[in-house]
């Protein structure tokens, strides 16, 4: 049973209408819940769009777990993140972006709960990436990038050459190593703790946050992750190290050279939990290991769980861990005994904790659990469990106005293909009438190491508001069904997953719900790849397509993307070793069948996307143009895989929706402002 705090919703139903683009302004995002030391309050970061200034305004909000009462501690302002309580509970620290333009960077601040202005503790030229309070509250350890090495002369005079490594082709200067520093909590001069050409890893979004620093309870040691260089393509060569803060000596926790991450000392300091992939393979699920703090590999705790763990937090007793990860059609939380045995799944009802390669959850000193969660008919809110055996209680109603709209109902569909059991999410039109057939849009998730689950989806609800069914199919390679399912995509990035999607579509067409003459396919990133793959390999099925940030050419991914040669772990060995390997890359690329595409296709991309270089969108664009296929290529001058500002996020959705309206529901498409054409450039 789900217990609800007494939260007002009176009058919201009177405002009810289908979800539309204007309603994006009503959504409040929630991230990073953090318990106060006494377990009575949870700090959480909220964000709301400011379309006039094209930014998200963030606030630090304190929520009482007993009654849901709220107090805004800081904000609203741009760029607030990572709240962390002092051990005494009298202060709370956070990162806040300072400066403007190219000089803008997150710095560390601390705020007294009794009142007053936040105190700025760091002035790191490259900003603070992440940090951790020392257990006695006397200092912070934090991570920042080194400043560039001095050149022979000024850059504006031509002295700006740099050596290229395994990184994305957009890099305009040598990446610098990130290292650990220590700054007193009372303020004062920061002290460097580590140095060298090696680095702590830096996550380029989207992805899980960089492995946090973990203090030993006595405050003498820090566990962290080290990579040999700051080049993004070398991140798989990551190993866990332990730093002696007093003398600066560093020792490896294990002797493994690869793929270790997310170390965390146990409450008594005697053990360290960390992540390592099943069988030591990059393509496999992450498992949680526990080892003595003195070193050694230890033992695998989650082999029997067979789920890709995306969060592990010590419970206060030190005998169990809270785990989180995708699990079937939702995100689950488990309690895993350290001495072994089966993990116990927590009863969360229909609420699914937020997942974005990282589960948004926290554990208090008294054993309470807080998480951000949603369900198909309710956007994200803050939830609380008094213990691992308690029912979840919703503490907030930030998104009550959206929950009260006429939302399309959603259900999980299952089907079989190639010996696998697959699933996906089907969202109905908001004003669905039984017996009437509606157009259908497939929205294929990216990754491919991700999954579509039973959570609130703003894009699906936007389509529902315009009278569409939306189908979000999972396929082999998705990470919600265990290791065999995830690993099945290795060297089969197109054909196998494509058959899985088409089998799900075939079942849906047999249901009689959809108009089989009005079906579109779409997706972003790997979802954009699968869109292009399906458009080319099953051309008669589609009325329209939208390929966003589409990875259409795996050789480009290997050579030019931020993951660089790590793609060899997924697609197959280097395409430069022999012609057979090169042919395998081409055969798995969507461009191999691009000349067969017939459906009108919208291409969306960011010009400086490091994850999926725009070169691949240009290839698709010219293939379509040269073959006389109706197409439009819309690009944004954004140096990221996904836009982080609200205006571009909304406009991306507008182009996506209107393209489908143009070809699946002619006469209903709104007129979007036309960007300046690049013609044949």
From TrEMBL:
The keyword Protease applies. The keyword tRNA-binding does not apply. Coiled coil: none annotated. Keywords: Hydrolase, Protease, Serine protease. GO terms for molecular function: serine-type endopeptidase activity. It holds the Pfam family PD40. One of its GO terms (biological process) is proteolysis. Residues 456-665 form the Peptidase S9 prolyl oligopeptidase catalytic domain. Signal peptide: none annotated. PANTHER family: DIPEPTIDYL PEPTIDASE FAMILY MEMBER 6, SERINE PEPTIDASE S9 FAMILY MEMBER. This is Peptidase S9 prolyl oligopeptidase catalytic domain-containing protein. It comes from Hymenobacter coccineus.
């Amino acid at each position: 049973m789900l217990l609800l705090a007494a939260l007002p919703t009176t009058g919201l139903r009177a405002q009810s209408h289908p979800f539309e683009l204007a309603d994006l302004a009503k959504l409040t995002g929630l991230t990073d819940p953090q318990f106060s030391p006494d377990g009575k309050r949870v700090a959480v970061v909220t964000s709301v769009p400011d379309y006039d200034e094209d930014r998200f305004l963030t606030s630090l909000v304190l929520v009482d777990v007993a009654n849901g009462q709220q107090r805004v501690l800081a904000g609203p302002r741009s760029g607030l993140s990572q709240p962390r309580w002092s051990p005494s509970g009298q202060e709370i620290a956070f990162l806040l972006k300072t400066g403007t333009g190219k000089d803008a960077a997150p710095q560390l601040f601390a705020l007294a709960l009794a009142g007053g202005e936040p105190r700025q503790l760091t002035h790191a030229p490259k900003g603070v990436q992440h940090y951790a309070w020392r257990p006695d509250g006397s200092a912070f350890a934090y991570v920042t990038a080194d400043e560039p090495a001095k050149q022979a002369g000024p850059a504006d005079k031509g002295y700006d050459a740099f050596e290229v490594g395994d990184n994305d082709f957009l890099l305009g200067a040598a990446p610098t190593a990130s290292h650990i520093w220590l700054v007193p909590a009372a303020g004062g001069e920061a002290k460097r703790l580590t140095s060298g050409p090696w680095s702590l890893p830096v996550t380029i979004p989207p992805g899980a946050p960089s492995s946090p620093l973990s203090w030993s309870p006595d405050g003498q040691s820090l566990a962290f992750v080290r990579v040999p260089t700051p080049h993004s393509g070398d991140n798989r060569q990551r190993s866990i190290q332990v730093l002696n803060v007093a003398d600066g000596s560093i020792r490896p926790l294990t002797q493994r050279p690869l793929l270790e991450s997310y170390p965390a000392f146990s409450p008594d300091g005697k053990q360290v939990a960390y992540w390592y992939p099943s069988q030591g393979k990059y393509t496999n699920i992450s498992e949680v290991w526990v080892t003595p703090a003195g070193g050694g590999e230890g033992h695998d705790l989650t082999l029997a769980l067979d789920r890709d763990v995306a969060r592990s937090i010590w419970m206060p007793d030190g005998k169990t861990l809270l785990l989180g990860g995708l699990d079937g059609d939702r995100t689950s939380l488990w309690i895993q005994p350290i001495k072994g045995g089966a993990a116990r799944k927590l009863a969360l009802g229909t609420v699914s904790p937020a997942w974005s390669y990282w589960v948004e959850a926290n554990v208090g000193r008294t054993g309470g659990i807080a998480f951000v969660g949603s369900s198909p008919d309710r956007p994200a809110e803050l939830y609380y469990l008094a213990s691992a055996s308690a029912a979840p209680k919703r503490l907030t109603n930030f998104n009550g106005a959206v929950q009260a709209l006429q939302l399309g109902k959603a259900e999980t569909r299952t089907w079989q293909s190639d010996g696998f059991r697959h699933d996906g999410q089907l969202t109905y039109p908001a004003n669905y009438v039984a017996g009437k057939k509606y157009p259908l849009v497939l929205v294929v998730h990216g990754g491919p190491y991700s999954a579509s689950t039973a959570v609130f989806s703003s894009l699906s609800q936007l389509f529902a508001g315009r009278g569409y069914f939306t189908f979000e199919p999972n396929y082999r390679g998705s990470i919600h069904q265990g290791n065999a399912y995830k690993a099945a995509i290795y060297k089969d990035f197109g054909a196998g997953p494509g058959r899985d999607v088409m089998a799900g579509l075939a079942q849906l067409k047999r249901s009689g719900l959809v108009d089989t003459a009005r079906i579109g396919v779409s997706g972003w990133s790997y979802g954009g790849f699968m869109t292009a793959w399906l458009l080319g390999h099953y051309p008669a099925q589609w009325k329209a397509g939208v390929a966003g940030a589409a990875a259409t050419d795996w050789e480009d991914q290997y050579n030019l993307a931020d993951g660089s040669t790590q793609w060899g772990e997924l697609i197959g060995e280097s395409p430069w070793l022999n012609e057979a390997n090169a042919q395998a890359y081409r055969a798995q690329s969507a461009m191999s069948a691009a000349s067969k595409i017939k459906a009108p296709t919208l291409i969306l991309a960011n010009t400086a996307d490091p994850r999926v270089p725009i070169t691949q969108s240009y290839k698709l664009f010219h293939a379509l143009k040269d073959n006389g296929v109706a197409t439009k290529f819309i690009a944004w001058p954004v140096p990221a895989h996904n836009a982080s500002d609200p205006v571009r996020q909304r406009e991306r959705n507008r182009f996506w929706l209107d393209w489908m309206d143009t070809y699946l529901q002619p006469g209903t498409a709104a007129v979007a402002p036309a960007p300046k054409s690049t013609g044949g450039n």
